[in-house]
Amino acid sequence: MNAAELAQKMKAFPGQWASGRLLADPHRQLERVLEVWRAAAAGRVLPSYRALGAVQLKAVLPDVHIYDVRPTPPRYVVRLIGTRMTEHLGAGMTGRPVADFPVERLRDAIAGLLGVVEASRAPLHLKAPRAVALPSGEHRSLESLWLPCGEDGETVDRIIAVSLLGEDAL
Q1: How far apart are CA 130 and CA 8, in angstroms?
Q2: What is the model's pLDDT at position 106?
Q3: Can you give the pLDDT at residue 1?
Q4: Which residues are CB-contacts of 111 (< 8 A; sequence separation ≥ 6)?
Q5: Sequential DSSP letters for 94-160
Q6: Would you say 36 and 52 are in contact if contact means Cβ atoms under 8 Å apart?
Q7: Which residue ranges form the domains of the chain, and what is each CATH number?
Q8: What is the CA radius of gyration of the chain?
């Protein structure tokens, strides 16, 4: 995906974003997660998701959401949702296709972000003062980091996201 295509796809998202790098003044935990992702890649385009386990992500586990990327529909399936993310997105999401999420705006936003990360094969950092509405109807500020992984080092087969939700946004 070239820069123009990426910019076009990201127009739909509120706030700021950067592909392949962090925006200015990132949350320190997201800086650390990106450092771990880069070290796990060990010179390959993508690290194996196995290199990013509970030990490496311990500080952010409650804020993690992991998606399997499949070659056939359903393309994106929830593999794991951290406890803090479950509080916001609801229980029973594990194993569900993103296409089945009940809130259309949330479903479309997550599917769009997953598609951009898969196509670019690069980390995506997002800051949004008014994130997409949660199932509860609340709007929260959001800073998130979306990390592509691939067992073969080239093909995205899993995406690990860390989303830090702030207070209610107006």
Answers
A1: 20
A2: 78
A3: 62
A4: 75, 76, 98, 99
A5: TT-BGGG-SSHHHHHHHHHHHHHHHHHTS-EEEEESSPPPPTTS--EEEEEEEEEE-TTSSS--EEE
A6: yes
A7: 15-168 (3.30.450.20)
A8: 15
Model pTM? 0.89
Q: Residue 54: is its pLDDT beyond 90?
A: no
Query: In whole angstroms, what separates CA 60 from the centre of its chain?
Result: 13
Q: What is the structure's pLDDT at 120?
A: 93
The set of long-range contacts for 19-22, using a CB threshold of 8 Å and a minimum separation of 24, is 19/116, 19/120, 19/122, 19/123, 19/124, 19/125, 20/120, 20/122, 20/123, 21/123, 21/125, 22/125, 22/145
CB atoms within 10 A of CB 135: 12
Confidence of residue 169 (pLDDT cuts 50, 70, 90): very low
Q: Per residue in 64-114, pLDDT tens?
A: 999 999 999 999 999 999 998 887 777 888 999 999 988 787 788 889 899
CA atoms within 13 A on the CB side of 76: 25
pLDDT digits (tens, 9 = 90+) for 6-36: 667 777 677 889 999 999 999 999 999 999 9
> Cβ distance 107 to 101 under 8 Å?
yes
